[in-house]
Amino acid sequence: MSTEFEPVAGSPDHYDADYYDNNGQAGDRPALRWYVRMVRRYLGQGPYLDFGCGTGHLLRRLAAHGPASGFEISPYSARMARETAPGCDVYTTLDAIPGGAFRGLTAVHVLEHLDDETVAAVLACWRRVLVPGGRALVVMPDPAGKGRALAGDGWNGYRDPTHVNLKPHREWRTVLADAGFTVVREGSDGLWNVPYGKLPKLVDAGLHAGPALAQFLAGRLFLRPGSGESSVFVLEAPASS
């Protein structure tokens, strides 16, 4: 099986400057601070691999806590990640990632861009590159979550045409477990993409965003699955191959 892949919708070159500008993820953002705290709490020490590292801001933050590398299929993203996180390796094919080299792996909003066959290849790669018992933090949009219910057809997860694999939380749980990973912890990021209705943004935030803010400040995962915008999983690789 080839390990030089691309999503069903959108070639690697699609993920360019315009793509990141349009989805608001070209630069650093507050959510990355929460992800790093989650990594430190639930994944432990590195080395880390940020799988689908985008323009490199999470990779840069992880590198402040230990050796960190990235993976990207987009030439633009890989180039930007190397500039954002100088000194960090950024791999562009699965085969190039060294086996058994990482204790922690992050994949934040990656799997929804891949068809099921590619997801299977990626999960096999994760098992290969993680040390036995290594852990992964995985985040993807939840079309069965409360965020989708409140936003309706205007939900943020539907706005990206490269989101070709929008599974509900319970289905992703099955896919991840069937791939050999143990689900150590699971939950949601909460309701943060306000406003969800016609109320002013601050008023809507007061109604909906409090639990997400509390979880963000705590640096923990305690909101139940389905209660927010995204599914969040902490996975553990098998203790032996």
Automatic annotation (TrEMBL):
A Pfam match: Methyltransf_23
GO terms of molecular function: methyltransferase activity
Keyword set includes Transferase: yes
Keywords (A to Z) from UniProt: Methyltransferase, S-adenosyl-L-methionine, Transferase
Biological processes annotated in GO: methylation
Keyword match Transferase: yes
Gene3D superfamilies assigned to the protein according to its UniProt record, in alphabetical order: Vaccinia Virus protein VP39 (3.40.50.150)
Entries under InterPro entries matching the protein: SAM-dependent_MTases_sf (IPR029063)
Protein name listed in UniProt: Class I SAM-dependent methyltransferase
Organism: Pseudonocardia alaniniphila
Lineage: Bacteria, Bacillati, Actinomycetota, Actinomycetes, Pseudonocardiales
